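ok so for the tutorial part 2 we go from a plain amino acid sequence to predicted C-alpha coordinates. step 1 is just haveing the sequence, like this:
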Amino acid sequence: LALARGSSAVHLVCAGTDGHVTLEDVLTAGAILDAAACDEDAPNDVLDTDAFSARDQFRQLMNGQRDDLTDRIARTFRTSLGGANLVALGMDADIKAAAGIDSLPVMPRLEPRKNQLIIYPNG
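step 2 — the prediction. this is what the C-alpha coordinates look like for a chain of 123 residues:
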Protein backbone atom coordinates (compact mmCIF):
# COMPACT_ATOMS: atom_id res chain seq x y z
CA LEU A 1 0.00 0.00 0.00
CA ALA A 2 1.35 3.42 -0.79
CA LEU A 3 0.53 7.03 -0.05
CA ALA A 4 2.41 9.83 -1.77
CA ARG A 5 2.24 13.44 -0.62
CA GLY A 6 4.09 15.81 -2.87
CA SER A 7 7.55 14.31 -3.13
CA SER A 8 7.26 12.14 0.02
CA ALA A 9 6.03 8.59 -0.19
CA VAL A 10 4.86 6.36 2.63
CA HIS A 11 4.68 2.61 2.09
CA LEU A 12 2.70 0.37 4.42
CA VAL A 13 3.77 -3.26 4.21
CA CYS A 14 1.28 -5.82 5.46
CA ALA A 15 2.95 -9.02 6.64
CA GLY A 16 -0.04 -11.34 6.28
CA THR A 17 -0.23 -14.83 7.74
CA ASP A 18 1.29 -17.91 6.13
CA GLY A 19 1.62 -16.13 2.78
CA HIS A 20 -1.98 -14.90 2.74
CA VAL A 21 -3.35 -11.36 2.88
CA THR A 22 -5.12 -10.95 6.22
CA LEU A 23 -8.03 -8.75 7.15
CA GLU A 24 -6.38 -7.50 10.34
CA ASP A 25 -3.44 -6.14 8.31
CA VAL A 26 -5.70 -4.54 5.71
CA LEU A 27 -7.91 -2.87 8.34
CA THR A 28 -4.89 -1.63 10.30
CA ALA A 29 -3.40 -0.11 7.15
CA GLY A 30 -6.80 1.41 6.39
CA ALA A 31 -6.94 2.96 9.87
CA ILE A 32 -3.48 4.48 9.38
CA LEU A 33 -4.51 5.89 6.01
CA ASP A 34 -7.76 7.23 7.44
CA ALA A 35 -5.87 8.90 10.29
CA ALA A 36 -3.49 10.45 7.79
CA ALA A 37 -6.58 12.26 6.47
CA CYS A 38 -6.09 11.03 2.95
CA ASP A 39 -8.84 12.42 0.81
CA GLU A 40 -9.42 11.29 -2.76
CA ASP A 41 -10.14 14.93 -3.64
CA ALA A 42 -6.83 16.22 -2.22
CA PRO A 43 -4.59 17.02 -5.19
CA ASN A 44 -1.32 16.19 -3.41
CA ASP A 45 -2.38 12.81 -1.99
CA VAL A 46 -1.98 9.77 -4.20
CA LEU A 47 -3.13 6.35 -3.01
CA ASP A 48 -2.54 3.15 -4.92
CA THR A 49 -5.48 0.80 -5.51
CA ASP A 50 -4.73 -1.38 -2.49
CA ALA A 51 -4.46 1.68 -0.24
CA PHE A 52 -7.86 2.97 -1.41
CA SER A 53 -9.35 -0.46 -0.74
CA ALA A 54 -7.82 -0.73 2.75
CA ARG A 55 -8.94 2.76 3.71
CA ASP A 56 -12.46 2.14 2.39
CA GLN A 57 -12.73 -1.20 4.25
CA PHE A 58 -11.76 0.53 7.49
CA ARG A 59 -14.20 3.38 6.87
CA GLN A 60 -16.96 0.87 6.16
CA LEU A 61 -16.24 -0.86 9.48
CA MET A 62 -16.16 2.52 11.21
CA ASN A 63 -19.49 3.41 9.56
CA GLY A 64 -19.32 6.96 10.86
CA GLN A 65 -19.47 5.78 14.49
CA ARG A 66 -16.74 5.65 17.09
CA ASP A 67 -18.74 4.54 20.15
CA ASP A 68 -18.02 0.82 19.98
CA LEU A 69 -15.36 0.87 17.26
CA THR A 70 -12.81 -1.04 19.33
CA ASP A 71 -15.34 -3.83 19.93
CA ARG A 72 -16.27 -3.96 16.24
CA ILE A 73 -12.60 -4.09 15.23
CA ALA A 74 -11.89 -6.83 17.80
CA ARG A 75 -14.83 -8.92 16.54
CA THR A 76 -13.57 -8.52 12.98
CA PHE A 77 -9.99 -9.36 13.96
CA ARG A 78 -11.20 -12.56 15.66
CA THR A 79 -12.66 -13.77 12.34
CA SER A 80 -9.48 -13.04 10.39
CA LEU A 81 -6.75 -15.62 9.78
CA GLY A 82 -4.25 -14.11 12.20
CA GLY A 83 -6.94 -13.40 14.78
CA ALA A 84 -8.29 -16.95 14.61
CA ASN A 85 -4.73 -18.17 15.21
CA LEU A 86 -4.47 -16.00 18.34
CA VAL A 87 -7.84 -17.21 19.64
CA ALA A 88 -6.71 -20.82 19.13
CA LEU A 89 -3.57 -20.05 21.17
CA GLY A 90 -5.63 -18.56 24.01
CA MET A 91 -4.43 -15.02 23.28
CA ASP A 92 -7.82 -13.37 22.84
CA ALA A 93 -6.84 -10.48 25.15
CA ASP A 94 -4.15 -9.51 22.64
CA ILE A 95 -6.83 -9.00 19.99
CA LYS A 96 -8.72 -6.51 22.18
CA ALA A 97 -5.47 -4.63 22.85
CA ALA A 98 -4.57 -4.57 19.15
CA ALA A 99 -8.04 -3.25 18.26
CA GLY A 100 -7.64 -0.09 20.34
CA ILE A 101 -7.17 3.10 18.36
CA ASP A 102 -5.07 5.86 19.94
CA SER A 103 -4.87 3.76 23.09
CA LEU A 104 -1.24 4.58 23.90
CA PRO A 105 0.12 7.99 24.92
CA VAL A 106 3.29 7.46 22.85
CA MET A 107 4.19 6.66 19.27
CA PRO A 108 7.40 5.00 18.03
CA ARG A 109 9.18 6.56 15.08
CA LEU A 110 12.15 5.21 13.22
CA GLU A 111 15.23 7.42 13.35
CA PRO A 112 17.14 6.13 10.30
CA ARG A 113 20.38 7.92 11.16
CA LYS A 114 20.46 6.22 14.56
CA ASN A 115 18.83 3.01 13.28
CA GLN A 116 16.56 3.12 16.33
CA LEU A 117 12.92 3.41 17.24
CA ILE A 118 12.44 6.53 19.35
CA ILE A 119 9.35 6.98 21.51
CA TYR A 120 7.57 10.33 21.10
CA PRO A 121 4.44 11.63 22.82
CA ASN A 122 1.37 10.79 20.73
CA GLY A 123 -0.29 13.84 19.32
